[in-house]
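User: I'm putting together notes for a lab meeting next week and I want to include a structural view of one of the chains we've been expressing. I don't have a solved structure, so I'd like a prediction I can at least talk through. The sequence is below, exactly as it appears in our construct file.
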Amino acid sequence: MQEEILTAKEAANFLKMSYTHLMRLASQGVIPSHQSARRGKRYFLKSELIAWIKGEYKEKPSRKGRGRKPSFNFPVG
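Assistant: Thanks for the context. Below is the predicted structure for the 77-residue chain, given as structure tokens.
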């Protein structure tokens, strides 16, 4: 069975909330969403939204501040 993919507007209608509120929650990681790397458009999987409604979805950890840490290995002399 193929997964049903929703656009942001379709997901907002499905969840009965405004588009702006949905996008804010999605960017914070509260609502499960995915973002295409090519164009940066956000999309939603209907099964994940249903799990979120039921309370079975765990919030993703924030990605802010993650990534490569700077190296501070200066020579001591």
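A couple of points you could mention at the meeting. The beta strands are 5-7, 34-35, 42-45. The longest helix spans residues 19-28.

User: Perfect, that's what I needed.
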